[in-house]
Write a structure and sequence with these properties.
alpha/beta, 7-stranded mixed sheet, 12 helices, about 40% helix, about 15% strand
């Protein structure tokens, strides 16, 4: 990561009010993300700030160094609703190992709990199993979502080049589950022509079930206007045969056609039924039995 530039900045607020989502607040300790996922919808936010959606997003990271102290102050006001951590950046991307802003935020939530969901692709989260376990005990609503769109090594390396391999994310999920933490998989985004076959989805679901995942979610790829050129440049370079199909599939806007979404929903429902995944509620299920083991970050 020697080519990544970090800018230490001050934030005026830590919690951001959200509308139209299954949570009321979001928290993002960093702006930009070194994981460099080609499909990341958060790149569009950079465009709205007149910042580069390519290298400017994944090579120039803003670090909100005062975030934890601001968060503690805001939590004392008792915000209503649920919190999502990592909606526009991975809260456990590599620089978290140095800055520990996400860990500090979790410690603040232990002191003043509120329902929380964490979204990540990183195995660094196992470092914080102690805090997550404590947070599970003091809050009835903590959930960790591992984003795993595919187990195909070629597609993963091309589409999310600086993330830990999917198998390592599954191992991290298993560690959290054995610690009694509610954790599951988001097969998201589903990439048309790359990860949307029933076989591809089934591989992820089977691996998630074997790792002890408590839920299995999904979301089709959305291509906002701000990142359309960037994403199509990626397709042209890595999977040129798909460009024409994508142009038709996204001809009317950022979402896939209703027919495509309906067919995808049927595939997902079929796969989920094989592994008895059910709709996830805002409750923490009974944890799997704890298995004594030595924790390691080298997964």
């Amino acid at each position: 990561m020697n080519d990544v530039v970090f800018r230490e900045v001050q934030c005026a607020s830590a919690l951001n009010r959200v509308k139209g989502m299954p949570f009321e607040w979001s928290l993002n300790p960093y702006k930009g993300c070194a994981h460099s996922c080609r499909y990341c919808f958060a790149r569009a936010y950079h465009a709205k700030m007149d910042r580069d959606v390519g290298a400017g997003f994944d090579r120039e990271i803003d670090v909100k160094i005062n975030l934890v102290e601001v968060l503690r102050r805001e939590l004392r006001k008792g915000p209503d609703g649920a919190l999502a951590i990592g909606t526009a950046t991975d809260p456990f991307q590599p620089c978290e190992g140095r800055y520990r802003l996400t860990r500090g935020s979790l410690e603040a939530l232990v002191e003043t709990p509120m329902p929380a969901t964490i979204i990540t692709k990183s195995t660094l989260i196992v470092r914080d199993v102690d805090v997550l376990s404590t947070l599970t005990e003091v809050s009835s609503e903590l959930r960790v979502c591992f984003s795993i769109p595919t187990l195909d090594e070629q597609v993963s390396r091309a589409a999310e080049p600086r993330t830990p391999p999917p198998e390592q994310r599954l191992r991290a999920l298993g560690i959290l589950r054995r610690a009694g933490i509610d954790a599951g998989v988001l097969c998201a985004p589903v990439l048309p022509g790359l990860t949307d076959s029933e076989d591809s989805i089934d591989r992820v679901a089977r691996a998630a079930a074997e790792a002890g995942a408590t839920f299995f979610g999904w979301r089709p790829l959305k291509i906002d206007p701000e990142i359309r050129d960037y994403y199509f440049d990626f397709l042209s370079a890595e999977f040129p045969v798909l460009v024409s199909a994508y142009q038709q599939l996204y001809a009317t806007g950022p979402q896939t056609s209703k027919d495509y979404q309906k067919a995808l929903d049927l595939k997902i429902a079929t796969v989920r039924s094989r592994y008895r995944f059910v709709e996830h509620r805002r409750t923490v299920p009974r944890p799997v039995p704890r298995v004594p083991q030595q924790m390691t970050l080298a997964i």
